[in-house]
Hints:
This protein is mainly α. The chain folds into two domains: 1-37, no CATH class; 38-101, no CATH class. The chain contains five helices and two strands. Strands 1-2 form a two-stranded antiparallel ribbon. Strand 1 and strand 2 (72-77) form a beta hairpin. The two termini are 20 Å apart.
Amino acid sequence: MAAEGVEDTAELAKQIEAETGAEVRRSILGYVQRGGNPTARSRLLANLFGEKAVETLANEEGKSMVGLLKGKIVSVPLTKSCQTRKELDLNTLKLAATLAT
């Protein structure tokens, strides 16, 4: 995470991607934090996720989640999704607790 204007987040994303080998996408939360209008991309993704969710249900593929994977809208069974474990960032957890009080 980086505060607005603190550093070049595009460059930071490239560095993280180079060091981890994982695809990294930066997300600027400005309109969410300020309660403003979503971007055209956000609206498009919401529609595409909704379309995929309805398609998944229509195909009776319940117990799934919809997401963006390598630029494609996909449906992933929750059992597969739950097999992926990520470390809990305790600093972020502490920050969330601080901001919530």
